[in-house]
Every structure is written in C-alpha cells, then in structure tokens.
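Morning. Coffee machine broken again, so started the prediction first thing and wrote up yesterday's gels while waiting. Chain of 68 residues, entered below exactly as on the submission form.
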Amino acid sequence: MSIFRRPHYSSEITNFIEEMKEKKPTLEAEQRAGRALLWDKHLDRGLLEEYSEARVPMQPYVYQTQSK
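Came back before lunch.
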C-alpha cells in the first residue's frame, strides 16, 4: 500500500449532482440541447461587417437635441 494513497473524497455538491444524474439519465442531453438552442449559434461574418459599417455613432450627450 502506498503512503500517498488517500481515501476518495466527494463533496455534497458532487454527490447531489451524481444522484440527479442517476435519477434522470437524460439530464445532460437536455442541458446540451438547451445550450445549443440559446448559445451555440453560427454567425455570418459578412452580415456582422455590414451591421458594424451601418452603425450610427452615438452623440456625446444623448438627451441633448441637435442644433442645425
């Protein structure tokens, strides 16, 4: 037996997550689907350039009316 071997420790949070995964095996797949729905988007670089070129610069003080 090695002197460096320690007993396995897992926190309450880890135990809770493992227990949730055992109760609901589809949990990770549902999380990945939700992430793909909201965050994993493919962006069109051409459109992004057009949007940035078409942007109108903001006035230094937004609420001041423009004088002609």
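The mean pLDDT is 87. Going to sketch it on the whiteboard this afternoon.
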